[in-house]
Amino acid sequence: MKTNVDAVSGVEKKIRVEVPADEVSRRIEEEFVELRKMVPLKGFRKGKAPMDMVKRMFRDSVRAEVSERLVKESLTDAIKEKDLKVLSMGEVDGGELVEGEDFVFSATVEVVPEVEARDYKGIPVYMEMVNVTDEDVAAAIERLRTPYAQFLPEEGRKTRIGDLVEFGFTATSGGETVDSNDSVSIVLANGIPFGQEFEQKMLGAGAGDARSFEITFPVQHPVPKYAGKTVAFEVKVSGVRERRLPELDDEFAKQFGDVSGLDDLRVKMRERLVAEAEDKARRGADEFLRKGLAERNVFDVPATLVKRQTAAMIRDTVERMGTQGMDLKKMKLDVDKMSERLAPSAERMVRVGLLIDAVSRQENLDVPFSEIDAEMKRMAETAGMELEKIRETFSSEEQLDSLRDRLLERKVMNYLLENAEMKEGVPE
Fold first, then answer.
1. Entry pTM
2. HSE, side-chain direction, 13 A CA sphere, residue 383
3. Nearest-5° Cα angle at 372, 317 to 381
4. Are 69 and 79 contacting, i.e. CB atoms less than 8 angstroms apart?
5. Backbone angles phi and psi of 27, in degrees to 5
6. pLDDT digit string (tens) for 78-122?
7. CA–CA gap between residue 79 and residue 93 (Å, rounded)
8. Which DSSP letter does residue 148 get?
9. Domains assigned to the chain
10. Are 137 and 273 in contact (CB under 8 A)?
11. 18: β partners
């Protein structure tokens, strides 16, 4: 068998195969012999029919069967011999089997391109400076207090922003009642569910006060019964409660893990904010590296890999929407439009992934098992789990390869950052 492989493009190869005539004849004869043993013919015991009769009756089917087998086997051998990473198979050209002649055919296959990364050193990177102030720490601790707030009644209090107001109301539009409730409690803060204008109308009201006002709601208002309507409200306030935050002291601070007191909480909060800021800065730097790497290395990207990446991104989007409580059936997602919108990002992700593999190969970067094991230990400590449980999670070869790939990508990105051109300020 003779095999030639020619490049059609950066992602396509044309495989041309020639099977010698004597091999074709041998395979056809073997097929007839096997067929004769298996197929009963009228008037003859199984395996005793004359060979010329068998050949006359089954010539076309045998040719088709041998042709199909030769194509499959030859392509498999050629792909293995040439070490091609085939993604998809195109149509087969030729492949007409004639006894006494060489069997010749060709097939175009889509392959993972052989990428050589270029100009990956000196990529301009703008990295945010990490600067956590005392005000940042104070604001973060203040946010910790919010969930622990209590709403306490205060005689004679008039509603202010942040208060909880209790009331009953009737809402009419066009002379018809669209909503009513004798007992409602809302916090005057974010406009939920009646909107910011409603809350403004309620400011300054106290227990026993009545208010009448109209509000014209936008068409996009989240409550359908109000959307796009002018609604008249009759409101009777029954109570006003002041929001009171817990005292900012050592006892409050001790609620948050291994913290000895308020000063310790401030120290740990600063450490957390610094870590978050560093992580954000690093993600920003990584984006500059990915963008620069893709722009400096333009090559054909396999459509199959782009489609796979796009499909994965759609799955992630749908799963995220589902976890956020969205009714996916009512949303009637247009997968085709989502694919069209996500395809450019998917293509860049595939391109960068191929380039990261290329850089790791060209710079001899690898991840030994000692680093994989160290990462498992870090994961166990972070999650508060036993190391053996983490190891069980990565017990299969596929899962272990996935972890190794993530670590290798991290190592390559560190290498690119070490060799980047660091700049101050913001890009023009």
1. 0.73
2. 12
3. 80
4. no
5. -65, -35
6. 899 889 999 998 888 887 788 788 889 999 999 999 999 999 999
7. 17
8. G
9. 2-111 (3.30.70.1050), 150-244 (3.10.50.40), 260-423 (1.10.3120.10)
10. yes
11. 2, 104
